[in-house]
């Protein structure tokens, strides 16, 4: 049973993964856990580190780098991955402009240096096109708050957080002021086939822009070659919270597993078809809790990218990042 005097408070984004937990359809057996979705993105990303929440769906990138730097309240990540998917479609360019392979010496916008999607796309450009990090003139959309100083960064637009800043960046790309934009969207489900509303809305507003790497067959070929399925957000809890409540980690894995099953039942026919097609083509279920071969390979590759960026000093083992002895692969 839960030994906490107070409920375990977890900040989460409201999405298909989490909705059954947020609306109370699914509860955590044996523990008093509250899920809060009406919180700001910075609060979700950094609230645990600052001691505001017992847990949240922070990014795997932040978790690794904060662990490396010893920042904030100690926390532990559970392999409950709520947002992820292929980052290929987040690279936007102008129709009729230069090809991706010619981005050397180009001007590229990204939300922040530490935005997980930007980390993955920088690695993708280097691995697949030979466009190395140091050959691009990088600019961030947002300011330096909660971001890293980076030796290859040329400047910041200092736009405030929010979708309007992304629209302003897309407009600058459309006018030819930049050569490419790494869009922060692309977190929608069925990412093999697209459909993310934030990304799609940007393309509808700026028809001169397109996704040069958005071909589903090309993305699938890349996955079959690399066995990488990018992880963005996952559940992280304060270490002292988990220590004070033995069994909480396993109960959360069970609850999130049941929440996803409940969410599947809410899919319409088109969504269900896309989900089944993606799982069939990939050969695994990317929305299942656990640390399978694909997740482990992805975590290792993310650390490769962070080291190539010059952002990660110490490389961790997967066991160090996910240390609790929970039967994740059941």
Quick synopsis:
This protein is an alpha/beta fold and 330 residues long.
Tell me the fraction of residues in β-strands, as a range: 15-25%
Query: For the largest beta sheet, what order do the strands appear in spatially?
Result: 8-7-6-9-5-10
The CATH class of the largest domain turns out to be Alpha Beta
First CA to last CA: what distance?
A: 22 Å
Query: What's the count of strands?
Result: 11
Low-confidence segments, ≥5 residues, pLDDT <50?
A: none
* Mass-distribution shape: globular
Mean pLDDT across residues:
92
Rounded to an integer in angstroms, the radius of gyration calculated over CA atoms is 19 Å
Number of helices: 12
Helix amount:
25-40%
Number of individual domains: 2
**Which architecture name of the largest domain does CATH use?**
3-Layer(aba) Sandwich
CATH topology description of the largest domain: D-Maltodextrin-Binding Protein, domain 2
Biggest pleated-sheet summary: 6 strands, mixed
Order of helices and strands: EHEHEHEEEHEEHEHEHEHHHHH
Structural class: alpha/beta
- The CATH homologous superfamily of the largest domain is called Periplasmic binding protein-like II
Name the features.
single chain, 330 residues, alpha/beta, D-Maltodextrin-Binding Protein, domain 2, 2 domains, six-stranded mixed sheet, five-stranded mixed sheet, 12 helices, 38% helix, 16% strand
